[in-house]
Hints:
By secondary structure, this protein is α/β, with parallel strands linked by helices. 35% of the residues lie in helices and 20% in strands. It has helices spanning 60-76, 83-90, 97-115, 119-123, 142-154, 170-180, 198-202, 221-230, 244-253, 269-281, 295-304, 352-357; strands spanning 5-21, 24-37, 42-47, 129-131, 134-136, 160-163, 185-188, 212-213, 235-237, 258-261, 286-288, 337-339, 359-366. The strands form three sheets. A seven-stranded parallel β-sheet has the order 5-6-7-8-9-10-11. A four-stranded antiparallel β-sheet has the order 3-2-1-13. Helix 2 (83-90) runs antiparallel to helix 3. The structure holds N-succinyl methionine (SMG) and magnesium ion (MG).
Amino acid sequence: MKLKSFELRRISLPLVAPFRTSFGVQSEREVLLIRAESPDSEGWGECVAMSEPLYSSEYLAAAEDVIKSHLLPRLFAQSEITANSVAEILGPVRGHPMAKGAVEMAVLDAELKEAGTSFGSFLGAVRKSVDCGVSIGIADSIEELMETVDGYIAQGYRRIKLKIEPGWDYAPVKAVRERFGDIPLQVDANAAYSLADSRQLKKLDAFDLLLIEQPLPEEEVRAHAELAKIVSTPICLDESITSARAAADAIAMGACSIINIKAGRVGGYIEARRVHDVCDASGVPVWCGGMLETGIGRAANVALSALPNFKLPGDTSGSDRYYHRDITDPFVLKDGRLDVPEAPGIGVNIVKDILDEVTLSEEVITA
Ligand code: SMG
Ligand code: MG
């Protein structure tokens, strides 16, 4: 494919409710979108970096800068590119997986639209719809949390994930277990603990959780392996898994028995499929994480979730969990599931009027 131009567009969407994690409160989602244009096609990519470098070291303004200054010039230097070649072309630039993943996604969407192939068929989807879970932020009180969980269960979500941090772990998990019984339940700490907290984390073993996600810092893979010997709740890694190779290492070390896959965190959907394959070969089940995506990223995440080794419900919630009005036709939960888009590329329609309304800035970069 020849590349004509890339459009970088910053948008801001208010969240339906503030989302509190161990690293802060989010009340709006600022997103960087990329539109790749070729002579015969166009494709969309969504950069999952947040406004501030609190989930990981990447953040939106830095992603925008590295894309403009270092990634696009490398792509424009090629006379022709394919989505499969993007990661290698961008390889000399260290790090910035979310920025690279967004660029690759835009190229891949354009390429698949031209070929008439959906993301799902390209990636190897084996299901037409996927089971959905929901991620619930840290609440102001146990009562407030009960109400939120109750609402999501009523909407049909097939698994509940509670955000935890020191001081908000045992009591909320116990309360949810007691009130809602045997529901599929898991927790996510976003690296808020240290190995010295292992006695507190072990108390969660009483609640038969599906998993505990990323209790310790990103770099502390060995410490997760130590923790795995102490707690019986399965350990799932999120932030630590930055590539298929990192996944293979973490598994070999005994640091996790489940992996959360986020395409942005590993540099794109092609590497995400490799993470899936490595885990599958090792008997480690995976599930799809979320970064408060718009319908653009959600469409691709739902397609990814349809691969065979996605054995647990993902953080792929309906559009109304996040936004009053999404920039695509909304994803609507049916019996706790979302349908995998079947149209070419990401397979979802972008609502141009809404997109324009929420746009903060727009820049077109040509070869
Ligand atoms: O997209 O539903 C979603 C959010 C899921 O909890 C979620 N994501 O660590 O897994 C995670 C967090 C990262 C983003 S928190 C603002
Ligand atoms: Mg997480």
